[in-house]
Amino acid sequence: MKILVTGGAGFIGSHIIDVLVENKHNVVIIDNLSSGFEYNVDKDAKLIKADINDFDKIKKIFYEEKPEIIYHLAAQIDVRKSVLDPIFDAQTNIMATLNLIKLSNDFKIKKFIFSSTGGAIYGDTDDRPTKENHPEWPLSPYGIAKLATDKFLNFYYEIFGLKYVSLRYGNVYGPRQNPYGEAGVVAIFLNKMLKNEQPVINGDGEQTRDYVYVKDVARANLLALKNIDKVGIYNVGTSIEISVNDLFKEINRNFNYRFKQVHGPAKLGEQKTSCLNFEKIKKDMGFKPEVNFSDGIKMTYEWFKNNKPEL
């Protein structure tokens, strides 16, 4: 099929491109390369350098490429930046996304597959692993925008019949993750430690996340395509909570435990817990995570050791 992927030069997007190309799909990527890199892109995919906020350009691409499927990953991904500048966040994560959804409906796209978020939508909850039907109380404009997109997608499905899947990820980690932003603690720690710099754990380090390996996330995206008639919201995680302290210890194991566990001030407003129930996508699409945490960290360490991430 002809598939258009926004944000396909980024961390998660490039892994999705890999599995789409492996499955013989014709892939076109839209990416402004603000956080993605051209070297991430499979040589068999077509890259168009464009910004999803350029509505006229995006419409022209739809006319010229005539995609059948949309994968939407392009986003403002910094949760803390969304808190500082919610209007900027909304321009990309709500308005530009809504434009893509409307174009998808206008062009009779077969399915819209959206990369959403688990933790940032559900917020702190005692009901863990958290199911998709849990009340959503996002604590950041970033999470609010992802939730708004889910609601817009449901509207276009119910009123116009545009099929969609929204995949709510846990904390995705793995090769190609950008270690220079505020997000992605695995990449940040590994990058510092490989440069023999001391990583600092925010607060007491007891905050927990559901760490899911990027290749498992890519498989979930492929299953969303293969199960083309499945519509709705699906968590993609491991249902296992891991604290930042335990994450640091697992990474440090690859360095023969030579780094000390150093703590700094807690980040204001940081979510305390997040863990996702993946039973729905397991039942509907046959997904379950295949890479355990220790192996995933080891493979990510090996990649960072052998590849120097660029700014």
Task: Please tell me the CATH architecture of the largest domain by its name.
Answer: 3-Layer(aba) Sandwich
Largest sheet: 7 strands, parallel
| CATH topology group of the largest domain | Rossmann fold
Number of domains: 2
* Physical arrangement of strands within the biggest beta sheet: 3-2-1-4-5-6-11
Report the sheet-strand fraction.
15-25%
Oligomer: single chain
Portion in helices: 40-55%
Could you give a quick summary of the protein structure above?
By secondary structure, the chain is α/β, with parallel strands linked by helices. It contains eleven helices and 13 strands.
Describe this structure in words.
With 311 residues, the protein is an alpha/beta fold. The protein folds into two domains: 2-171 and 212-236, Rossmann fold, CATH 3.40.50; 174-209 and 240-306, UDP-galactose 4-epimerase, domain 1. The protein contains eleven helices and 13 strands. It has helices at residues 11-22, 55-65, 79-84, 86-106, 119-122, 141-160, 185-194, 214-226, 244-253, 279-285, 293-306; strands at residues 2-6, 26-31, 46-49, 69-72, 111-117, 164-169, 171-173, 201-202, 208-209, 211-213, 232-236, 242-243, 263-264. The strands form four sheets. It has a seven-stranded parallel β-sheet, sandwiched between helices. Strands 7-10 form a two-stranded parallel sheet. Helix 1 (11-22) links the parallel strand 1 and strand 2. Helix 1 (11-22) crosses helix 8, helix 4 (86-106) packs parallel to helix 6 (141-160) and helix 7 (185-194) runs parallel beside helix 9. The longest helix is centred in the N-terminal third of the chain and has 21 residues, at 86-106. The model has no long low-confidence stretch (mean pLDDT 94).
